Amino acid sequence: MHDDTRDDVVVIHTDGGCRPNPGPGGWGAVLRQRQHVREMCGGESGVTSNNRMELTAPIMALEALTRPVSVHLYTDSTYVRNGITKWVLGWERNGWLTAAKQPVKNVDLWQRLQNACARHEVEWFWVKGHSGVDDNELADVLATRGMTEAIAAGVAI
């Protein structure tokens, strides 16, 4: 079992999505360390995808950390968790081609996520979406806010 109560661990919950998919999208992240809480969100008013928003959320959260730390990162995206923990090294080794020799989708974000992870000691956890996990629910609310604000602004944030 993972111990999210250790003082030196930053616990991050992330979420992202689009309505429709593809379409405008948003991402959200909740970062906690001891009593400190930071909420982040952003979005894209143009055409993006659920997967791009699910990837953007942990990138933005990890890039916001000012010093190297231990991170427990929770996502409800199996695409993100499996990609970063299982697939990405093979893709990199194969010149960013899939096993079927097709270009990896979202390669720009996978590379950025790798770089963001490199500064930290990150453990990845999958959490079932909409299952009553408070910070996962909050990350979902933040992702919706990010999308709504991006649409209202009419530009990428």
UniProtKB/TrEMBL annotation:
Q: Which residues of this UniProt protein bind Mg(2+) 1?
A: D15, E54, D76
Q: Which reaction does it catalyse?
A: Endonucleolytic cleavage to 5'-phosphomonoester
Q: What is its EC number?
A: 3.1.26.4
Query: Gene3D superfamilies from the xrefs?
Result: Ribonuclease H-like superfamily/Ribonuclease H
Provide one Gene Ontology biological process annotation.
DNA replication, removal of RNA primer
Tell me one Pfam family matched here. Answer: RNase_H
Which cofactor(s) are needed, names only?
A: Mg(2+)
InterPro entries, alphabetically?
RNase_H (IPR050092), RNaseH-like_sf (IPR012337), RNaseH_domain (IPR002156), RNaseH_sf (IPR036397), RNaseHI (IPR022892)
Query: What does the UniProt function comment say about this protein?
Result: Endonuclease that specifically degrades the RNA of RNA-DNA hybrids.
PANTHER family xref list: RIBONUCLEASE H1
* NCBIfam families with a match to the protein in the record: PRK00203.1 (NF001236)
- What this protein is called in its record is Ribonuclease H
